[in-house]
Every structure is written in C-alpha cells, then in structure tokens.
Specification:
Blueprint (H helix, E strand, L loop, with lengths): L13 H9 L2 H12 L5 H5 L7 H13 L3 E5 L7 E5 L1 H4 L2 H14 L6 H9 L1 H13 L12 H15 L11
Helix pairs in contact: 6-7
C-alpha cells in the first residue's frame, strides 16, 4: 500500500481514497475522453460538448497528472502543444468506466440505445481488451463514435418527452 505523506485523506477506505483522486464528474469525463473518444489535447477536451470551463479543465488535468492517472507530453514538432495520455494507473480504470457507462445507460435517460447496452454487456471482455490494446499502441481512434453535444442533448430531451423520465428505448441505432 503506497501513500503520499503529503496528501491528507478523509479516511484510509479504498473507495474514499479513489474518489478523492478521480471522483468528480469532470475528472471522470476527461478519463472517458482519453480512454474511448480519442481526445488528447486541451482543446479537444474543451470542445467535447460537456461545457467544462477552461480554468476547471486546466485544474483537473493538473490534478490527474499529480495523481499519476495521466501524463502531459510536449509534442516533438511543437513544444508549445501538449498531448495527454493515460498512464497504466489511468488505463486500469477501464473496467470502472465501462461499468459506469452500462449502469448509466440501464438506469438513466441517455442517448445510448438498448442494442448498444446489450452489446457492451455481452462483449465486456473484448471491449476492455480493445481499450487496453489501443492504449498500448497509442491508437487514438475513438472506441465510441463522436457525437455532437447539441444533438445528444436534443435526443435526450425528446426521449424524455416521448417516453417519460427513466425510459431507455432503442433509438434505432446500434
């Protein structure tokens, strides 16, 4: 068990300790974007459609780097550009991220179709292997397709209106 003596924690509970490192929504969305959407620059995170403010983004990237979940690497061709990459510690969050995705799609109103949800659950092992393979090969090809944030919000709004909150009907995609 490693413990940074400088960090003051609420408790030694592994859940509490983990949540202190990556438990806010912005950090988890940054990890998601690195892991499955192929994002790796400050600009791509800022334009992800989530609406994060640039000062919050900068602070979360710095916090995740200090925690050893990601690294910032200057581009060889342009030292002013920084690319972010998950560390081994960060990529080890893949099972948790997949479980959050499946749980959210199952229990909350989302833009994920029932077909996609079933595919994720059925192919869990293969999805996690592919996430790790892409990370090992530095492949930034998105694991999930890019979506327009405004379109996704409109879809969710329409689905809530048509089916009632909590309904997760197949959108005919998948």
């Amino acid at each position: 068990m490693r413990r940074d003596k400088r960090a003051k924690r609420r408790s030694d509970c592994p859940v509490s300790t983990s949540l202190e490192l990556f438990g806010d929504r912005w950090s988890l969305l940054i990890i998601r974007d690195l892991m499955v959407r192929g994002f790796h620059t400050f600009k791509s995170f800022l334009e992800s459609g989530e609406g994060i403010a640039s000062n919050i983004l900068a602070e979360r990237l710095h916090r995740l780097e200090r925690a050893g979940i990601l690294v910032a690497q200057h581009e060889e061709t342009d030292g002013r550009r920084v690319n972010y990459r998950l560390t081994e510690k960060g990529i080890d969050l893949a099972p948790l991220m997949l479980d959050l995705l499946i749980w959210g799609a199952r229990h909350e109103q989302t833009a994920t179709s029932c077909t996609s949800l079933l595919t994720m659950e059925k192919n869990r092992k293969e999805i996690l292997e592919e996430v790790r393979r892409r990370w090992e090969n530095r492949d930034t090809t998105p694991l999930i397709p890019q979506f327009d944030g405004e379109i996704a919000r409109d879809l969710a709004r329409n689905r809530r209106h048509e089916h009632g909150v909590g309904a997760n009907k197949d959108l005919g995609r998948g």
